[in-house]
Amino acid sequence: MRVILVGCGIAGAALSLTLQRAGIDHLVLEQASELAETGAGLQQSPNSIRVLQYLGLMDELKRIGVAPQAHLFKDYKSGTVLLKTPLMPKVEEYFGAPYYHVHRADLLGIMVNAMDPANIRLNSKVSSVVETRNGVEVTLSDGTLEKGDVLIGADGLHSMVRQQFFAADAPRHSGCVAWRGLVPVALAQKLGFEQNSYLWMGPHRSAVLYYVRGGDLFNWVGISPYNDNAKESWSQTGSREAALKEYKGWNSQVTDLINDTESLFMTALIDRDPLDAWVTNRVALMGDAAHAMMPYHAQGAGQSIEDAWVLGRCLEMAAGDIPAALKKYETLRLPRANRVQQQSRGGEHLFHMSDPEEIARRNARFAKHQQDDRDGFPAGQRWLFSYDAEKAVMGTDDEWRALNW
Ligand SMILES: Cc1cc2nc3c(=O)[nH]c(=O)nc-3n(C[C@H](O)[C@H](O)[C@H](O)COP(=O)(O)OP(=O)(O)OC[C@H]3O[C@@H](n4cnc5c(N)ncnc54)[C@H](O)[C@@H]3O)c2cc1C
Fold first, then answer.
1. Is the distance from the beta carbon of residue 197 to the nearest atom of ligand 1 less than 6 Å?
2. Per the domain annotation, does 17 fall within a domain?
3. Is the CB of 49 under 6 A from ligand 1?
4. What is the domain range of residue 74?
5. Fewer Cβ neighbours under 10 Å: the N or C end of the chain?
């Protein structure tokens, strides 16, 4: 079997490693001339870290990651902690895999380092794909033709594979932008930030803050209503004055952080509507190409990594029947990823609500959870974090299936 992958982001790299582990012949075609992830932090929860464990990346992950102690949900003005849920080490004891914050360039870097260089070709933009009865033919923008038995679209939010085979739909603009910056550890410590994952919630906007790069850098992302100059781009710079204007009236711990950030970036937040099919007989989607989502539950890359393990293992166990393997992958993965996509849209309202009575009801719910819950993990986290991609493939995930979000 020869698998052709379009795209070497986190999804494509994770699938390449899964196929490599199984000894499956494959080629990753990446349009970029070098593999340098832009952007900043990623939170990775036990459901995706478990796959990185299966892929043998834990030593490297410990080196680049930061293990936060807790999630702190805070009021935007007073800084009061409205809800505190445990992370490390309790999350590892409870779910069997750790929680890490990483810089996305570091995560992609350790994945690419583990890939056999023979399996990846840079400067290779795929311009069209033809599915035949027994395989796929891929044409690159320089006219090169590649043939394989199956094609995987891991080509991100603006996926041409999705467009060509599954839906000619347009990406959905959320009406929000993400501001972001990275500051040195000394500055974050001076401002009083500890090794936690912080989510500050205020009317129409929020901010998420945490350490990355083994604790050397502090990452922040602020999400606020749309500014009509914003494009969807990880490298678009933003003005400090404009960001400070958005966060006017917020606690000085947040505004001082913004004020002291040297380079500030902004990107429009865009997602996709869920699809009801991700596979044909010989073509499949994964990662953002299949389920680009809002970042409120920090799961986009995590779901891509889960996809990679399940898809790679289905192909490994295909016994020559590729259409059946792809169908199994879709059956196992689509309902979960679509649910996360839907809940991620809902996160915007939960974290950005502005009606005082509704805020009071939400905060009372948080307080009740804090008081009542034995182990401290909200139902949504249990449903997200308990998932074991290998158990899903083997059909031994009844415990997870009994959970709800
Ligand atoms: C503000 C923000 C915060 C986030 N925080 C988190 C978080 O904390 N945790 C988390 O898990 N997720 C998070 N995410 C989501 C995460 O960034 C994405 O879900 C993830 O990076 C998707 O990876 P991907 O490989 O599917 O797509 P991409 O990273 O977009 O990779 C696609 C690749 O395909 C290549 N490509 C595209 N078209 C072609 C073509 N025609 N030919 C060849 N190559 C092609 C591209 O060059 C690219 O390298 C966040 C997202 C945002 C916007």
1. no
2. yes
3. no
4. 2-170+272-401
5. C
